[in-house]
Each structure stands twice: as C-alpha cells, then as structure tokens.
Amino acid sequence: MDASQLLKGVLDVAVLAVVRDADGYGYDVVRRLRGAGLEDVGDASVYGTLRRLYQAGALTSYVVPSDEGPHRKYYAINDRGRSVLEDSTKTWRTFADTVDELLAGTGAAA
Amino acid sequence: MRPAVAEAQEYLAAVEQELADLPGDDRGALLEDLAQHLEALAGEDDDRPLSVRLGQPAAYAADLRAAAGLPASRGGAASSSVGLVERVRATAASWRALPATRETGRLLGDLRPAWWVARGYLVVLLPCLHAFDGVSDFPVPAPLDNHLLGALLVLVAVAASVALGRRRLPRPLELLVAAFGILLLLATFVAWDRSQVSRGAYLGAGAPMSPQMASEYPLLSRYGPVTDVFPYSADGTPLEGVLLYDQDGRPLTVGLQEWWADGCRRVLEHPQAADGGPVSWSFPQDYELAGAGQGIDGRPAVCDAARPRPEVPLPTFPPAPVD
Q1: Distance from CA of A45 to the nearest CA of B (A)
Q2: How far apart are the CA of A27 and the nearest CA of chain B, in angstroms?
Q3: Which chain B residue shows the shortest CA-CA distance from A29?
Q4: Average pLDDT, stretch B134-162?
Q5: Structural domain for A45, as ranges
Q6: What is the DSSP secondary structure assignment for residue B210, as one 8-state letter?
Q7: Where are the transmembrane segments (chain A) (predicted)?
Q8: CA distance B207 to B199
Q9: pLDDT higher than 90, residue B234
Q10: Stretch among A29-33, A57-61, B75-79 having the lowest mean pLDDT
Q11: Which residues on adjacent β-strands are paired with residue B243?
Q12: What share of chain B has pLDDT > 90, as a percent?
C-alpha cells in the first residue's frame, strides 16, 4: 500500500500536532515529521500545508532574524488550530479504530 | 558562489516559473522561506542533485499548489484564457528565472554603492553644468566659481547619498528615490551635452554645431580656430590671392579675426567675383584698417595698414635633378 496516499489525508493533523509541540519554520517542520517516522512526507506538501493552515486561521506566524541568511518565518498554533486539531484527532481515532476493527474483524467474526 | 547555493537558486527559479500564474501575494508567501530551505538541503551531505531528492521542479510546484489549496497550473491549451496581467507576470517571472537575468541582477546589486557615490557627485555637478561661467566644472564642479566649495559639497553630498542608500526605506519612498536617480542621470546627460565641458569635443569631432558657432569658427586646427591662411610656393615665395578648396571641392572658409595685437580695428574685405559676389576663400584674407588710428576701445593706436606675414620656418627642398 502506498503510504504517501494515506499521508495526504492526515498531513493537516500531523503538521498541527508537530507545531503544537513547538513553533517551527518550514524546513524544521519537515525534519520533525520525518524524525517522527513519516519519512515519505513531501517537502512541497508540508510547505503548502503550512501556508493553507495559516490562511485558514489555524496558525499564526512570526519572523525571526537568522544569522545565516534571510529571516525565518515561524509558525505557531493558535486556539483555532488547537480546536481543529482536537476535532481531527477525534475523527482520526474513530477512523483508525474502525479500520483496525475491520482489519482484525475477519478473525474475530470467524 | 558555493555550488549548493547555485543549485538551490536554479531549482527555486524553476519552481518560481511554474508558479508564475499565481497572484504575487500567494507566490511570494509560498516561496518565502523556501530559498533558505533549499540551500540547507543542497548543502547537506548528499551527492544527489535536488531534482532527484525533491523531484522535478514542476512536480514540486504541483505538490505545493495542491497542499496549499491553490488552483492547479493552467498550462498549454488553457493559456489563451489567462488574463493579460497574469501572462505579463508569468513572462516577467520566466525572465527573472533566466540565469543571465539573475546574474545581472546580482551584479547591479553589487554596483549599488558605486551608484550612491555617483549620485552624490551628480547632484553637485548638475547645477554647475548649467552655468556658462567660463569656469571648468569637470572633474571638480565649481559652484559660485569655487572649486574648493565644489569639492566640499561633493563630499557632503556623497556621504548623504551613501547614508540614504544604506537605509531601508518604505516602498513608495524607495520608488521615489529611484525615480529621482533616473531623472538625475538623464538631466546630467542632457546638461553635459550642452555644457562647455563637452564643447571642445563637439567641435573637434565635427558633430553638428550651432549656426552661431559655425560662423565664429568655421575651421579649427589643433591649436584653435583658424582665421587666416598664408600660402607659399615651394621655393618660399609668398603667394597672394590663392583660392582654397577642401577635399570635397567646397570653398574653404575661416573664422573672422576680431582682435589684433596692435589694438587696431580692422574690417575684412573679400575680393569680388565678376558677378559681384564676395570670394571669401581667397587667401591670405584681406583686412583693412577701419578708420585711421582708431583703436578697438576708441583710444588712438599706432596702426599699420600693411599687415606683416608671420615668421614661418619654411622647409628647404633638395634641388631638382638636372636633366
């Protein structure tokens, strides 16, 4: 099964979760997602997702001067983002449990 | 430049080109810190090029659009429906993405401090070029005929201009300063063209002259305006009434001599042709005293009607072979 297709559906919640732990800039969020095990996560997808969540009002952003080059744009979760994450978490749990049951179900029903 | 930076910039340019149809705000926000990210990626210990690690720029741009919830690229057949503004913007972006354009942009950026210095200098030079005061304004401008004042003003203006250049200005003000700079440059070119500084070059190069200047000095030698010609034959005999023509067969005319070393006033008398027309290309020119003993400034002067020829070092030729 192609994990990248699954990722697309949960990227919003994954990104929100990472930013909830600590504010981050684009590349930093990519690294943390990969570090958490989502190795197939696409660079461009994360950038695009951060931008869309920001425009939807789920993230705020601020700029931090960098010694190495241009300023970095950090993203931080806000109340709206937290409630989105909460809802999405519930949805994910229900969904994951359902799929788990479904996958295990053949054995249980037998 | 480090190869990593170059690679990142190339990749970024290609992605930027793919996003060229997006409104400027959307594109800017998407690409905002991507450059830094790509540079960091390219600098990592990984020999594979970015296009292998991240996929082709077109695919990257498509992912970016999809994830950001932006419309997919309208390419190919649909391009005719794209608005003019967007197409212009896309063209501009593809221009900016060209390596030559980026390189030129970088070079111009490097030259900015030089422009700041030149701007300060020109601000002082320009008004001086307009004043026909007979004082040289180049290279050191002389406001109020004073070169020292000019040098001081140039120093102050250059310092102010550099200080202005180093400051970050709000966008509208920045545009205003840039427009002023272009105007200053154009005005200097125009003023330079008309100024005394370039006049010498004008005449020497045979560029178009004003009618007034042409009548004053129709012929110039390396020593200045020519007002007369004294011909001699090869054996040293002074010649009179010689008609001179230029390489195209046009009569050679010279300037009018207004001032004489003895202070006397003279008028130019041309010999007359049969039809009564003056022959101004007959040399030497024939100057007659205007009123006996009448000086230029009205005071009596000792004047000699016979005008001596100048002393000339005549060459001696070898004797002609006898047949």
Answers
A1: 5
A2: 6
A3: B37
A4: 85
A5: 3-109
A6: -
A7: none
A8: 10
A9: no
A10: B75-79
A11: B282
A12: 8
Residue A92 sits at the chain B interface (C-beta within 8 Å): no
Contacts of B60 (CB under 8 A, 6+ apart): A43, A44, B15, B18, B54
Token duo for residue B295: 């000086």
**CB-based contact (8 Å) between B66 and chain A?**
yes
Q: Residue B271: what residue type?
A: P
Which residue carries 């869309």 as its tokens?
Answer: A52
Residues of B within 8 A of A57 (CB-CB) are: none
Task: Please name the residues in contact with B283: beta carbons below 8 A apart, sequence gap of 6 or more.
Answer: B228, B229, B230, B231, B241, B242, B243, B244
CATH assignment at residue A99: 1.10.10.10
How distant is the Cα of B108 from the closest Cα of chain A, in angstroms? 19
pLDDT at B217 over 70: no
Strands A59-64 and A72-77: antiparallel
ipTM value, please give it: 0.78
Which of B196, B187, B193, B221 lies closest to B207, judged by CA? B193
Which residue from A26, A48, A71 is facing B37, i.e. has the nearest CB? A26
CB contact under 8 A, B33 and A25: yes
- CA contacts within 13 A on the Cβ side of B67: 28
- Compute how many other C-beta atoms are within 10 angstroms of the C-beta atom of residue B17: 18
Residue B202 has pLDDT above 50, yes or no: no
Q: How many domains does chain A have?
A: 1
C-beta separation of B80 from B86 below 8 A: no
Confidence (pLDDT) at B292: 60
Are A45 and B63 a contacting pair at CB < 8 A? yes
Interface check for B25 against chain A (CB to CB < 8 A): the answer is no
